[in-house]
Write a structure and sequence with these properties.
This protein is α+β, with helices and mostly antiparallel strands and 152 residues long. Helix content is 41%, strand content 18%. It has a single domain, classed as Aspartate Aminotransferase, domain 1 (Alpha-Beta Complex). It contains 4 helices and 5 strands; from the N terminus they run H-H-H-E-E-E-E-E-H. It has a 5-stranded antiparallel sheet with strand order 1-2-3-4-5. The N and C termini lie far apart (45 Å).
Length: 152
Amino acid sequence: MTETSKTTPDGFSETERAAMRQRAAELQAQKGLKGAAKRALDYTACLEAIAALPEPDRHLAERYHVIVSEEAPQLNPKTWYGFPSYAIDDQVLTFFQSASKFDTRYATIGFNDVATLDDGALWPTVFAVTEVTPAVEQRLRALVRQATAHQG
């Protein structure tokens, strides 16, 4: 059993508990900040989270950051449970989850319910990514555009 999968008495792994502590620290750092000051802190935190990732996660997160920045400049970069994420009206719309964080086989790019990816009664909201090829980049760009199509 790896360190990340060992559970504590409350049922959470040490890595999950660390992510919860990171989220609490994110909220504490934002306390009392509003407007441009909050966005600047969030932006810096997002870039720092990306820079702290080991390869190949860092490269994937950097590419996703560029894609989101170009396709949806209205989204605000921030961190969410320590992950690089992008929000509208303080609601996280999309995020990058590194493989290294939870010792998984691949990184994921996820979309929360504020994203407009709806496609009938069933649609994917999380995508595994191992490299950003031209085809993958094209698909990610389309997903970000679709996710933000009805956002302000």
